[in-house]
């Protein structure tokens, strides 16, 4: 089994390296690395963004959550689509109008240097922690399946995988990733479809029986309207979905950088709308797989692990046979690396453009700085993964993800205040507001839990953003007119 998985990984990376070689042969300058020379076909970008949105953690977690939360995650997924429309028709026109490489450049034009550096810093922090955490969990699965058998240390596995990602991204960055992510999305969707087909075959089901099993399952519930305290309440989930897309896509350099590689604003909008629409059936398939896995375990009397994230890996490796194991391996590799490679590239872009002002430099000097930064980002990525491993592996990951999500609240507040008010602020105090807003949000969340037994879900992003907006109002000064806004 270990050798089979290793062969799959080797062939997969060989294809990625081939694509990188072909794409970067003509151009590897900073314009290609940051924005792909603005020549990316919108439909290729849309396909790649689907894979980037589904991390390896999602690949194993979404099917596993069905046993605990039914299919209520679809409520949030349905909220994603209006969020994508807002990103497409409110934020993208602004980014294209200002001809931005980093979207946080808007904050400098609207408020000033401190706001700009603060927004970029919050993105860098959240993306490093989030992307490293996601890659860590998948490397851990591969370590268990393959490399432990050969007594290869975990740190060696991590170094090799990050080095391989660096190898196919360091020359042309986003220009390469647009195409490699499209390939990885196709592999991800093919793997998902083949796993569903194999599970159905093991159970002796045809298509109609699969549909009946999903429809009649006690876990097929999608909507929750009657429990206002629950995190699964429809209104909490739906509006949180809208908010999450605005912040984690529209205000995230990693996701927006791909859109900015499109030739025109119209192409970028077509990409965003089609990508947002495709996200709905893809997540429904993941949840449907979760129901089929539960039905399979019941049919064969299999005791499932307590950790829902382990359900798909355990069944794939021990009960569903080699075809499913191969598809599972391809799926988690495709999902994980499409997320990690774009994260490393967008982090390099943000550091170069937002912190080091590389765009003001010319020629080979700018290219050399970008190369050094990309290598440094990879090293920091490694250190974060090692730190996560040191603090007892998966037990703290939920806390890490929650802490990372707090960093998007100040970004939401900054952009909302800039777009929908004409107020100028005392720019130098913005970092203070953006630090205190998450602290106040955490205090409120803790208080509501221990006084009213109210569990705050993803709406903490909204509260965080509102605290930021309130703080910015306190920093307001006499306006001489808006610098850059919606119009």
Q: Residue share in helices?
A: over 70%
Uncertain segments of ≥5 residues (pLDDT<50)?
Answer: 480-484
Main pleated-sheet profile: 2 strands, antiparallel
* Strand numbers in spatial order across the main sheet: 1-2
Transmembrane segments: 6-23, 43-66, 78-98, 119-146, 152-169, 181-200, 234-251, 272-299, 319-337, 373-391, 403-421, 428-444, 456-475
Family: Belongs to the sodium:solute symporter (SSF) (TC 2.A.21) family.
Membrane topology: Multi-pass membrane protein
GO biological process, one term: sodium ion transport
Question: Could you walk me through the main structural features you see in this protein, from its secondary elements to its overall organization?
Answer:
Its main location: membrane. This is Sodium:solute symporter. InterPro entries: Na/Glc_symporter_sf, Na/solute_symporter, Sodium:Solute_Symporter_SSF. It holds the Pfam family SSF. With 487 residues, the protein is mostly helical. It folds into two domains: 392 residues, Sodium/glucose cotransporter (Up-down Bundle); 86 residues, no CATH class. It is built from 21 helices and two strands. Helix 20 packs across helix 21. The longest helix is centred in the middle third of the chain and has 36 residues. The protein is globular and about 70 Å long.
Q: Helices and strands in order, then pairings?
A:
Blueprint: H1 2-24, H2 30-35, H3 42-53, H4 56-64, H5 66-69, H6 73-97, H7 105-110, H8 113-145, H9 154-169, H10 174-203, H11 207-216, H12 234-250, H13 253-259, H14 265-300, H15 311-318, H16 322-355, H17 363-390, H18 397-406, H19 408-420, E1 424-425, H20 430-452, H21 460-474, E2 476-477
Antiparallel strand pairs: 1-2
């Amino acid at each position: 089994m270990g050798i089979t998985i290793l062969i799959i990984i080797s062939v997969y990376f060989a294809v990625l390296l081939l694509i990188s070689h072909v794409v970067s042969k003509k151009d590897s300058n900073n314009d290609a690395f940051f924005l792909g020379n603005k020549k990316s076909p919108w439909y290729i970008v849309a396909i790649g963004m689907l894979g980037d949105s589904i991390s390896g953690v999602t690949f194993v977690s979404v099917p596993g959550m069905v046993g605990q939360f039914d299919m209520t995650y679809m409520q949030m997924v349905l909220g994603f689509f209006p969020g994508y429309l807002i990103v497409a028709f409110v934020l993208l026109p602004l980014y294209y109008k200002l001809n931005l490489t980093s979207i946080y450049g808007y904050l400098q034009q609207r408020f000033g240097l401190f706001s700009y550096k603060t927004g970029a810093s919050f993105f860098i922090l959240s993306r490093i922690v989030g992307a490293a955490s996601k890659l860590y969990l998948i490397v851990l699965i591969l370590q268990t399946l393959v490399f432990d058998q050969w007594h290869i240390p975990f740190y060696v596995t991590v170094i090799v995988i990050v080095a391989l990602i660096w190898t196919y991204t360091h020359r042309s960055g986003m220009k390469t990733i647009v195409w490699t992510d499209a390939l990885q999305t196709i592999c991800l969707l093919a793997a998902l479809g083949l796993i569903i087909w194999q599970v159905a075959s093991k159970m002796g089901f045809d298509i109609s029986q699969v549909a009946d099993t999903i429809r009649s399952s006690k876990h097929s519930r999608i909507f929750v309207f009657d429990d206002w305290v629950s995190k699964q309440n429809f209104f909490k989930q739906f509006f949180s979905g809208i908010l999450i897309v605005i912040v984690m896509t529209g205000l995230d350099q990693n996701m927006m950088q791909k859109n900015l590689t499109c030739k025109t604003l119209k192409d970028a909008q077509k990409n965003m709308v089609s990508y947002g629409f495709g996200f709905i059936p893809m997540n429904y398939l993941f949840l449907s797989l979760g129901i089929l896995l539960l039905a399979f375990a019941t049919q064969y009397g299999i005791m499932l692990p307590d950790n829902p994230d382990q359900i798909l890996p355990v069944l794939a490796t021990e009960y569903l046979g080699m075809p499913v194991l191969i598809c599972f391996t391809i799926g988690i590799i495709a999902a994980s690396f499409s997320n990690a490679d774009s994260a490393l590239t967008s982090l390099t872009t943000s550091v170069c453009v937002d912190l080091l002002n590389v765009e003001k430099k010319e020629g080979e000097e700018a290219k050399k700085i970008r190369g050094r930064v990309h290598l440094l980002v990879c090293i920091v990525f490694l250190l974060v993964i090692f730190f996560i491993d040191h603090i007892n592996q998966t037990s703290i990951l939920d806390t890490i993800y929650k802490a990372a999500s707090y960093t998007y609240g100040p970004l939401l507040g900054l952009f909302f205040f800039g777009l929908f008010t004409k107020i100028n602020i005392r720019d130098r105090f913005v970092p203070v507001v953006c630090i205190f807003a998450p602290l106040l949000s955490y205090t409120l969340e803790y208080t509501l839990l221990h006084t009213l037994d109210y569990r705050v879900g993803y709406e903490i992003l909204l509260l965080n953003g509102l605290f930021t907006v309130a703080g910015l109002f306190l920093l307001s000064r006499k306006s001489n007119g808006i610098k850059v806004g919606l119009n």
